[in-house]
């Protein structure tokens, strides 16, 4: 299991008793949950439940044994939609650009393409993940960002390194230290392709 | 979208300005500029509604450790966790200190 994987099979009985009503609603409707970048107890996986509103995100854990189906971001590259929205048009534009790379779709676009539940709207960003086992040079990051910035909506691409995730936009920028999101939290690092001390 | 304003006691204004962070989910952009002596003002524009208390408490915890310089801070938040907010502010203070 990796951050951004979508999981089906969670039941409302597995939610903590203080879960808000909209969380129960989403789970009872059969919506998938999203794997979070966090450490969980053995036999559990840290997940997030999405609601309709932007501030409706609920962090919880799911028993691994309950997982019935798992969809990874890469599996959504070929999924198309009949809806006409900037984020989906951006996706059409970027598919050939990223064709040779290990990339996938996350965020609301990934959620919608995987589940059929409408999560995108006119002003949604497109969230992507690019798995980079090898270091992506900053100049190459700048070039890629320049292409993403021609898309019809904002594109938030996260570079997944062996140690965590860093935003392409930040890595392509001038900041010496960048924010690396890891299972143990966020860290400011000089090189995202080096283990955090 | 919600805009929140905060004010805290501070020391002297620094000379430089700094821009740290990144536009993107789970992150924030922080612009730090010299403010009026003795005053730290913060404006937060956030996509997460109803979180004023959380910001207030987070800032209080950060600034009680040491008195901050007099700054005018502009924050664009895209749903960052408190840990990320803390790191970005530390990064901003550090960059301002280097000028």
Automatic annotation (TrEMBL), chain A:
This is Phosphoribosyl-dephospho-CoA transferase. It comes from the Bacteria. NCBIfam families: malonate_mdcG, PRK01293.1. Its EC number is 2.7.7.66. The lineage of its organism: Bacteria, Pseudomonadati, Pseudomonadota, Gammaproteobacteria, Pseudomonadales. It comes from Pseudomonas antarctica. It holds the Pfam family MdcG. Residues 3-73 form the Phosphoribosyl-dephospho-CoA transferase MdcG N-terminal domain. The gene is mdcG. Signal peptide: none annotated. GO terms for molecular function: nucleotidyltransferase activity.
Automatic annotation (TrEMBL), chain B:
GO terms for molecular function: acyl carrier activity. One of its GO terms (cellular component) is cytoplasm. The modification O-(phosphoribosyl dephospho-coenzyme A)serine is found at residue 25. The keyword Cytoplasm applies. It comes from the Bacteria. It holds the Pfam family ACP. InterPro entries: Mal_deCO2ase/Cit_lyase_ACP, Malonate_deCO2ase_dsu. Keywords: Cytoplasm, Phosphoprotein. Covalently binds the prosthetic group of malonate decarboxylase. It is found in: Cytoplasm. Subunit of malonate decarboxylase, it is an acyl carrier protein to which acetyl and malonyl thioester residues are bound via a 2'-(5''-phosphoribosyl)-3'-dephospho-CoA prosthetic group and turn over during the catalytic mechanism. Belongs to the MdcC family. This is Malonate decarboxylase acyl carrier protein. It comes from Pseudomonas antarctica.
